[in-house]
Amino acid sequence: TQLRLAQRAAQLLKAGGIMVYSTCSLNPIENEAVVGALLERCGGALELADGAHAIATRLAGGCAPGMHKWPVLDFALQRHEAFEALATSERPRGERRLYRASMWPPDPTTHVAQQLPKCVRLLPHRSDSGGFFVALLRKLRPLAPFPSPIWPRAHPSPRALAAPLALAPARDAHRYSRISTHLRKQLKARLRAVAASCREGG
Question: What is the pTM of this model?
């Protein structure tokens, strides 16, 4: 969800604009993993801006760079080196469904991984505050209309497209229409009352 929200914000951002992605968490899966996946999916249209560390140090008294590698643990605190290892493990299916490949660190040789240290981690023992994460992102050009790679649920499956639409029975449609008409009448009556009150007060 955080990744989709971040990408939607990036789509709305004007080219040349600055976007801040921030959380009150030090969990890299909520922080660097989201930023890394966002950079990958935007295909070079976003970059991490320089200078955030200097500003954070001046305002908060100290910070640490973003992480470019981190462990991913299951509910039993067992480490999994890759998404495929967890997906084929003996962990319960409901637990395995909570994980996404984007939660794992990017390849350390990629440009995305090399950018992640530009993120800012505000640590409680350095800034006398709670833990915070900040990433300053600059939009270089408009984004593609669809994310790359395509989100698993971004488009309906052929089976869903082929399934017939489940239409409500005619009697239900008539009932909903009556309810809608009743609500419109109530709204009009209230608006008339408010208008009359305003005229009297004026």
Answer: 0.70
